[in-house]
Amino acid sequence: MAQPNFSIEFFPPKTAEGADKLRAARSRLAELKPSYFSVTFGAGGTTQKGTLDTVLETRAAGLAAAPHLSCVGGSEATIRDILKQYQANDIRRLVALRGDMPSGYGLGGAFRYASELVEFIRKETGDWFWIDVAAYPEMHPQARSPQEDLQNFNRKIKAGANSAITQYFYNADAYFRFVESARDLGIETPVVPGVMPITNYTQLMRFSEMCGAEIPRWIRLKLASYGDDTESIKAFGLDVVSRLCEQLLAGGAPGLHFYSMNQSEPVTQIWQRLV
Known about the structure:
The chain is an alpha/beta fold. It has helices spanning 16-30, 48-60, 76-88, 114-125, 146-159, 172-184, 201-211, 217-225, 230-250, 265-274, and strands at 5-10, 36-39, 65-70, 93-97, 130-135, 163-168, 191-195, 255-259. It has an 8-stranded parallel barrel, surrounded by 4 helices.
């Protein structure tokens, strides 16, 4: 089995203070030697410049970086311009997503689905980029069925994606079942589990409601029982997520992609338990 690849996700900071915190977190996380850092892209392209700036600063620090690129609301011209900027800066990896519409934003744009974005990237740039796409072991919240969701995933792969990163989850069986179903369709593309550390119960519940990630009942009840005891929440979360990562790697996952929330400690603690 090949050596697992680990990657870490950031979001572009919106303030000078946030930028300083991200630099400190990135410096600490760089010590773990991940394969690359990815940088998110806001709804409707609202953080486009922030994404580019963060990626370039990450590269200037001697680290591999992969910008996220979402297509909802974007025109072919705007996406083409972004691709040219990344090519001009010798960026070779992208995370191609449909993305979310910003609040109050009507329907529009040249692309409706991530598969169309992947196809466009390939048409414009050939094999310049390694393209990651999203996968949803527990089903995309807007999909009508698991079968439909799997077919949507298959379209992204056929359009030219090289690998996939999943939405976070806390049930390893959901991941393994998804990969098995993909293999049954003939999809051999690597599917890397997305990992969300647990540090804040309220925040986790809010995120999960938005993205459709299921928090198993036993985890929800245990977290709720701690109330405002932050240290107990973090300790329990560390145990749960570390064990999940161990299960995933033992079961053959090709790596792990950590949603850092621009913090270094939670990812570092999980990482130290795995090495």
